[in-house]
Amino acid sequence: MDTVKILHTADLHLDCRFSGLSAQKSKLRRQELKDSFADALKEYSDADIVLICGDIFDNASFARSTVAFLENLFSSYPDTSFFITMGNHDPCNSRAAEMLRASVPDNVVIFSDKAEYMELDELGVRVYGMSFSDKYEYESFMTEFEVIKDDYINILMLHGELTGKLSESKYNPITAEQLELSGFDYVALGHIHNFDGIHLAGRTYYAYSGTHEPHGFDECGPKGVIYGQVGKGMCRLGLKTTALRNYEDIRLDISSARTQEELADMISCAVADKKSFYRINLTGTLTDNISVDCGLLEETTDAFYIKITDSTHHSYNLDMLALETGLKGYVAKNVLKELENCSDSDVAKVCAASDYLFELIDNGV
Ligand SMILES: [Mn+2]
Backbone phi, then psi, for 9, in 5-degree steps? Predict the structure, then answer.
């Protein structure tokens, strides 16, 4: 069966500000967004067509050098056909879109804000697309397309939001039912920054590629491009990871740390990839000889970016509390008695219950 090799990407958000980072790291990340995209094109340069489904640029502020970068990049693959739809961050009326349109070479098609298609006769493929004209698109673009039914492989590319009801999104709403009835072989989507698999509605395959490189902690998980083959009523596609750095959001129970060195080691082990971004929330019950200084731990842990928060609490010293008069002394004496009589396997449970009781007495929570 005849197939076409595609590379599907979206939501590059080039020139993204990375406002949570230092000026130096933010600049480095902006360069990496470009490097990572260029690397992906090189790695999968045997793709016949490249689909870029919106939000190439992050917003109205973009660098002219980035447009020049894209122009050079597209020019260096003259045998590849590039197709671009503009998204809500870089709609047709934006300066970035205008400049891109004015500069791209002949092997690049940028879809307008009307439903259009291009035929690649040598490949037997038709690529359909439509761009955002403005920040919001309340009406579904899907109603604008009618598939030409013949031997050609029909691929649609859109920036838009999959939704249960058409009224529920202002970002070109698309329903599974529309996809099922559409007649396309593959629908390449952009807008959602996470890849969650290749899906099938009726005989139509569809997927969000997600972004090629994450932009923040709301974009954890593997990031890459979709690459593979599409044919009539079939596809062999998968995510190929491309991200140079990842974001990791971790809860780390440090109850078993007995010394400050052990605590530092546990954090260091959690930071498996020194190049990545980490947000670590420390949890658990600590003994008196462990103290948590988030700033110091951040400084002494080797990572590109690390933010540590402390949600731990200290265990209560039962022997000391048992000497007190009042409610806590009474509870401590009884817990000690309980610990003497309980089996080894119940010690942890009794300790956790007593910690909970003391927290309740101390904080009322
Ligand atoms: Mn986006």
Answer: -140, 170
Indicate if 287 and 335 belong to the same structural domain: no
State pLDDT tens for residues 257-298: 989 999 999 999 999 999 999 999 999 988 878 899 999 999
pLDDT 10s digits, 71-109: 999 999 999 999 999 999 999 999 999 999 999 999 999
Looking at the fold, whether 168 and 309 belong to one and the same domain comes out as no
Q: How many angstroms is it from 193 CA to the middle of ligand 1? A: 6
Instruction: Write the pLDDT tens digit of every residue in 147-173.
Output: 999 999 999 999 999 999 999 999 999
- Please say which residue of 224, 241, 258 terminates a domain: 241
Task: Report how many domains make up the chain.
Answer: 3
One domain, residues 233 and 258: no
Distance, CA 80 to ligand 1 centroid (Å)?
Answer: 24
Looking at the structure, tell me whether residues 223 and 309 fall in a common domain: no
Do 233 and 279 share a domain, yes or no? Answer: no
Alpha carbon distance 22, 141 (integer Å): 40
Cα of 245 vs centre of ligand 1, distance in Å, is 18
Is residue 64 within 8 A of residue 95, CB to CB? The reply is no
What spacing in Å lies between the alpha carbon of 269 and ligand 1's midpoint? 33
Record the pTM: 0.88
> 59 Cβ partners below 8 Å, 6+ apart?
15, 89, 90
Distance 242 CA to ligand 1 centre (A): 17
Please give the distance, rounded to the nearest whole angstrom, from the Cα atom of residue 211 to the centre of ligand 1.
8
| Pairing assessment for the beta strands 204-208 and 173-174 based on DSSP bridges | unpaired
Residues lining ion ligand 1 (Cβ < 5 A) are 11, 55
Question: How far away, in angstroms, is 281 Cα from ligand 1 center?
Answer: 28
Ligand 1 midpoint to CA 87 (Å) = 7
Range of the domain at 81: 3-241
DSSP state of 174: E
Q: Are residues 55 and 196 in the same domain?
A: yes
